[in-house]
Amino acid sequence: MTPPASINSNIAELSRRIRLAEQENGREANSVTLMAVSKTRPAAAIRASVAAGISHIGENYLQEALHKQDLLQDLNITWHCIGPVQSNKSRTVAEQFDWLHTLDREKIARRLSEQRPAHRPPLNVCLQVNIDEEPQKAGIVAADIPSLAATVASLPGLRLRGLMAIPAARSNPSEQRQVFARLRHCFESLQAQHPEVDTLSMGMSRDFEAAIAEGATLVRIGTEIFGPRDPAPGV
Ligand SMILES: *Cc1c(COP(=O)(O)O)cnc(C)c1O
Fold this sequence. Notes:
Layout lengths: L3 H21 L8 E5 L5 H9 L4 E4 L2 H10 L6 E4 L8 H7 L2 E5 L2 H10 L7 E6 L16 H10 L3 E7 L8 H21 L5 E3 L6 H6 L4 E4 L1 H4 L9
Parallel strand pairs: 1-2, 1-8, 2-3, 3-4, 4-5, 5-6, 6-7
Helix pairs in contact: 1-2, 4-5
Bound molecules: pyridoxal-5'-phosphate.
């Protein structure tokens, strides 16, 4: 496991790069939130990241996430589900998370809203956009954003916050920016219909600076905080 001291210095270095990218692109200071993506990492690594100032944690696998949430109840963490959600697992997301970044189906939206416990605020939702229109990839195409957004906005258990995407990797920096720019245009159109949306969830370890240049408000970082991942999920 990456020792807590390196997690701490990795986060300091990332925060520095994020602030620099904000400055260089005329973004407001602290307008980009750093989410730590902790899939396959032990609870102790999350604890170290929280000690280093992180408050947003992203998890992909529900069983793994629940186990860690249980071990970290003493911490003040905003939990984000960033993995795919099958309809038979929607209740877990509705009950145990603060955010979902991967909504791409109306049926799941309705289930989540019904299943959201009355004592909790509405579940914050980003629509996942398949920005490269890759056949095997989750997410809706840009043309379908308005109808799913209208559904989410109408459901009492959900709060529409914005868009999320995982573009295909590109080695050419200008192509990398172009794909984020397309997502930004989708976001601006969405904002015209739903002025309340405030979240553009894009950018990972390999490309977060390009994402910030194109308006990301939240970057999802795993490797640059916790080190390389083992291929298999674990707890
Ligand atoms: C794993 C993952 C990340 C983080 O990826 P890194 O390359 O480790 O920064 C971000 N977003 C999603 C949806 C992921 O599954």
